[in-house]
Structure of Acyl-CoA dehydrogenase:
Amino acid sequence: MLDRFLSPEQSAWLRQFESFSAAEVAPYADEWDLKEATPAMVVRKLGVNGWLGGLAKKENGGLGFDPTTFGLLNMAIGAGSGSLTGLLNVHSMVLKTIESWGSLEQRQRFLTPLVKGEIIGAFAQTEVSAGGDSKNLSTRFEEHGNDLIVQGQKTWITFAQIADLFLVFGKYQGLDTAVLVPKDTPGLTVTAKRNMLGFKSAYLAVLDFDGCRIPKANIVGKPGFGQSLISTGALDYGRISVAWAAVGIQQAALAASARRANSRSTFGSLLADQGIIRGYLAEMSGSLLASQLICLSAAKAKEAREEDALEQILQAKLFASREAGAAADKAVQIHGGHGCDESNGVSRLYRDAKILQVVEGSNELQKMLIGKEVCNRYSHGAPQAVL
Ligand SMILES: Cc1cc2nc3c(=O)[nH]c(=O)nc-3n(C[C@H](O)[C@H](O)[C@H](O)COP(=O)(O)OP(=O)(O)OC[C@H]3O[C@@H](n4cnc5c(N)ncnc54)[C@H](O)[C@@H]3O)c2cc1C
């Protein structure tokens, strides 16, 4: 279906992403999930293919992916492993932040290795007491001459166990600020966070910053840019990643369910011949189609820098992750007891789909932001409707 909306180049990328995911990701994702680890070789291959730096501009050594192509990558990888989309997500957010806001020195030092996947970036915003409420971070950057001392803790940081560079959000002189902290900075401790509900092979970690000294030159952009410009700009890509990953989960849930329905007999006939099961499959495929369209719309709005791009991206993340949850729920139901086995792929889809409703701003936060956009649109007399 999607191809009719894609350029020949985008379709060609999609075929490459899908064959990589089918050969190198999907067959192993359950094993990775149980082991709570992603092999270094897969991360390396994503780097060698150029996909970790896909979003970077060509003049910076990247592939210059437009948001749709980045979305297609997340969709294809997401159909194989939700956890692995976490890497594309956070690494791309760090990379795009440095490309857009980094000083010359920061770009010279970090951008090329990030683009090549030689180093891995992670996005460290959430704290135990402040997730969605990101204005209330307690991490502090205190000035000591030409240095900053970083003090605080971050939690649930995706791919932090193997990351080399952290984009860390906190307060500097009372202003929301983002800084770069390399992993080998003395005083930084990375502790694996295991036993998560989903995204089990996404190498989550807790970061403790205990008197980490970094040069003031590691501030990204300017003090005060942390939330208003840097985090929100990065999250556009993060949410595109999540929305399309949710489409991938729906594809995988539908395919597994249809295969199961075609092979499982109960009471003398196939599940596929039962009206109620066909109804589930019809709902799943309808929601998948709608999710693809809303994700395409959001990616194209972002590419064209349209006025309503933010709202479109928020809607895509909200809708596609909610439908991924519904699809994975039906997939488990269609698989019955087998689907409830932790090692069964649909169980993983179910758990990962739930994560997509929480990360990158919970779905409640998406609704709050969308509602605000809608109110703004209708605030000056006659509605200036875009929808
Ligand atoms: C697998 C995983 C990976 C993650 N990766 C990262 C990462 O790489 N980097 C990072 O910085 N963070 C990461 N996070 C953290 C994630 O972004 C936060 O958990 C998320 O933003 C929600 O914040 P919170 O957990 O503090 O929830 P809270 O803010 O405590 O909210 C709890 C619930 O209440 C709802 N709620 C809160 N306020 C309101 C309100 N005013 N009105 C209505 N409802 C409200 C929320 O929607 C949510 O459902 C990750 C989390 C998970 C689970």
Notes: Residues 174 and 258 are 55 Å apart (CA to CA). The longest strand covers residues 147-157. Residues 226-263 form the longest helix (38 residues). The mean pLDDT is 96.
